[in-house]
Amino acid sequence: MDTRQLAAFCTVVEQRSFSRAAERLGITQPAVSLQVQSLEKRLGRRLLDRSGRRVEPTEAGERLYRGAQRLLALEDQLVEDVAGSDDRELGGTLAVGASTGPGGSVVPLCLAQFQRLHPQLAVALSVHDTQRVIELVAERELELGIVGAPTRHRAVVSEPLFRDEVVLACPPAHRFAGRTISTEELRAEPLIVMQEGAGVRQVIEQELRAAGLRLRDLDVRLQLGLQESVKSAVAAGFGVTFISRSAVGAELAAGTLASARVAGLEPSREIFLVRAAGRTPSRAAEAFVSFARERLG
User: Fold this and answer.
1) Which of 18, 107, 124, 214 has the most CB atoms within 10 Å of its CB?
2) Distance from the Cα of residue 36 to its chain's centroid
3) What's the CATH code of the domain at 157?
4) What DSSP element (H or E) covers 126?
């Protein structure tokens, strides 16, 4: 139902006159009459009694007036809510996905800090491998994705968020601990890798290719899907692994793991923010991205 017609009708009822209603609305009297006639035609009822000196609502007009008042008040409230939404506290739910590297350390803390600033906002973080996060963003199951490798998926757009170093993690008493080792030494050591699709694995495979090596040239003993599983296996002495420094920061500080470098390899990666192409971001998403850039950039 056209709210302009309802507004014109209600003003006529309140002013008891088409001319005064036109003056109040700032339009011509014929325009007001046309609005009311269109409304009567749509409803199939006579809404105003024009026979006396004053215009009076009919019984159907009285019922319409009461309902129209509620509807117009609701319209005003909606306009006020939308127009003033930028000044309101963030609410609703922000659904974010992250790959296992950033999703195991940096992103949870950043989201927790952000949510503390916006207590009316609920945050939902899901952690998957890079490709799965990208798929969920493309399907709009997640509003934002934070992954360790760029994407060429047509349904999403990506942009750098921050840079993360990749280190070779080993037990603290390991002969590699704190050293820069050669690729020959690396070849002779049992290596634990993450599952295919993991951002760190993609970065390492690229670095190895640039150095004339392949992952199959190394002594890969274990392929473990989760970052926590890889860290546990390294700490238990089953091998060494390439992993995001941010993912093992606490362990390095506590001395439960150590790091090493490999001569000729400089593995680091951009951590990327991905969004669905063409999707209008929510206020919560925009605010979080600004917050994350300030904290992590």
Assistant:
1) 107
2) 47
3) 3.40.190.290
4) strand 121-128
- Structure token pair of residue 39: 């409304």
Q: 197: left (phi > 0), else alpha (psi -120 to 50), else beta?
A: left
**Is the per-residue pLDDT at 182 higher than 60?**
yes
**Backbone phi, then psi, for 257, in 5-degree steps?**
-135, 160
Q: Identify the residue whose tokens are 């009285």.
A: 62
pLDDT at 88 over 80: no
Give dist(CA 156, CA 274) in Å, integer: 6
Number of domains the chain is built from: 2
Shared domain for 95 and 213, answered yes or no, is yes
Classified as helix, coil or strand, 31 is helix
Q: Tens digit of pLDDT for each residue in 187-206?
A: 999 999 988 877 788 889 99
Q: Are residues 62 and 183 in the same domain?
A: no
C-alpha 99, offset from chain centre:
14
Closest CA to 103 of 133, 138, 140: 133
pTM (predicted TM-score): 0.59
